[in-house]
Design goal:
The protein has 263 residues and is mainly beta. It has two domains: 161 residues, no CATH class; 72 residues, no CATH class. The protein contains three helices and 14 strands. The strands form two sheets. It has an eight-stranded mixed β-barrel. A six-stranded antiparallel β-barrel has the order 9-10-11-14-13-12. Strand 13 and strand 14 form a beta hairpin. It starts with a helix and ends with a strand.
Length: 263
């Protein structure tokens, strides 16, 4: 069983747990629909609709200085927040762990999560273990314990926040967190580009579907513009795992891609 499937088998074992003050957090991925009810946004205490979780509450807002990367305690320049610190966010790739961000305790029990560059990506209010987007307050994942190990579980929207920072949580070697178990439910035609991320590394279509472009075809997709029309077909000619072909019917460009799910 590959690691990605193992995560989904074990996801039912996830239980909410507080994060200790000084401990690295391993990052894992899960579809929002696969989270147990206790950890999902369907439970009101984890919902962004609850005011105490809302980005509109000043204590959660990026406008509050204690949540800002401009505060030195939140800065990547502080040793504790860096790649040799003790509150890192770590992503496993090929049996090794890579530093992709850090977390900092804020005021009154709030936890802020930053990218390695210092951008505030998420926050977790004190009354929940749920994770919310630092810009719009959308549910992005949860803090949990998996087999006695504290982890940060990111759903599709959480993964997308890292993708916008140039970190693809699904660009793993064969057998590591593979996304090929996702089956694209949409049709072939009638699509258009909503967002082109990192110069053609990722494409998001109008239906919210997220596509990782085959690195060999990135040069083809790097100049694709939003609202360009896209047709999707199955193809066996791309790199392993890149089993779809996105065809830009506006300029005739083609790029093999891997479906990563929907935001």
């Amino acid at each position: 069983m590959n690691k990605f499937l193992t995560i989904f088998v074990l996801i039912v074992l996830l239980i909410a747990a507080p994060v200790s003050a000084f401990a690295d957090l391993k990052v894992i991925i899960a579809r929002e629909s696969d989270l147990p009810f206790e950890l999902s946004p369907s439970k009101f205490s984890n919902s962004p609709s609850k005011f105490s979780n809302s980005i509109s509450k000043f204590s959660n807002s990026p406008s509050k200085f204690s949540n800002s990367p401009s505060k030195f305690d939140n800065s990547p320049s502080k040793f504790d927040n860096g790649s040799s610190g003790n509150r890192r966010l770590l992503l496993e790739q090929g049996g090794s762990y890579f530093y992709i961000g850090y977390y900092v305790w804020g005021d009154e029990g709030l936890i802020n999560f930053f990218s390695s560059k210092g951008k505030r990506l998420f926050y977790s209010p004190p009354e929940t273990d749920a994770l919310f987007n630092g810009e719009d307050g959308e549910f992005c994942g949860t803090l949990a314990t998996l087999k006695n190990e504290k982890v940060l579980v990111l759903t599709e929207k959480g993964q997308l926040a890292f993708m916008r920072e140039g970190v693809s949580l699904l660009s793993q070697p064969e057998g590591k967190l593979r996304s090929s178990i996702y089956q694209y439910p949409g049709g072939s035609s009638g699509h258009w580009i909503q967002e082109n991320i990192d110069s053609g590394s990722m494409i998001i279509l109008e239906d919210g579907s997220i596509w990782q472009i085959d690195p060999l075809d990135k040069i083809e997709a790097m100049l694709w513009l939003p609202v360009s029309n896209i047709t999707i077909v199955i193809s066996n000619n791309g790199s392993p795992g890149y089993d779809h072909l996105l065809i830009n019917t506006d300029d005739g460009g083609k790029a093999h891609a891997k479906y990563l799910g929907s935001k």
